[in-house]
Structure prediction request, 177 residues.
Amino acid sequence: MKQVRQPQETFSSTVRIVLPNDTNTLGNLMGGNLLHWMDVAAAVSANRHCRRVVVTAAVNNVSFDRPIRLGDVVLIESQVTRAFHSSMEVYLEVMIENSATGERCRCNEAYYTFVAVDQLGAPIAVPGVEPQTDEERKRFDGALRRRQLRLILAGKLKPAEATELKALFDEGQSTTS
Prediction:
């Protein structure tokens, strides 16, 4: 297995058209449908990273910035931002494309977490991530803080053990003192 992958190697892009059966009574894409589409796109990125079966472990920080309407062309782009022992964080960006002009605008983003598993469903090790761009490094650096927060909220990590989060708050205290 490759020891390290670059985020670009995990890039996934999906395009969908919002059809009537995808919408609610207001003609907007139902949030659950979008989450499903995003889950599939993120799973492709996670699989490209580790080349193993992956399962969704968490969906967090989903923002719905604007509605997606019937007939809209929806683009979902994803890539792995960071890997831990058996888990991978995947960043997703959702855009609407104007079919007449080709102009795109961002309407949603999220972070998903996947775990690689073996044939018996047990977690297995995954390659590391080697960010190449400033944006990739920024997401890579923030991934540990997001992971620690997610684990605290799930009751799997004590707040005192969240060193990255603690350092973030300690840093804020020293600049305000």
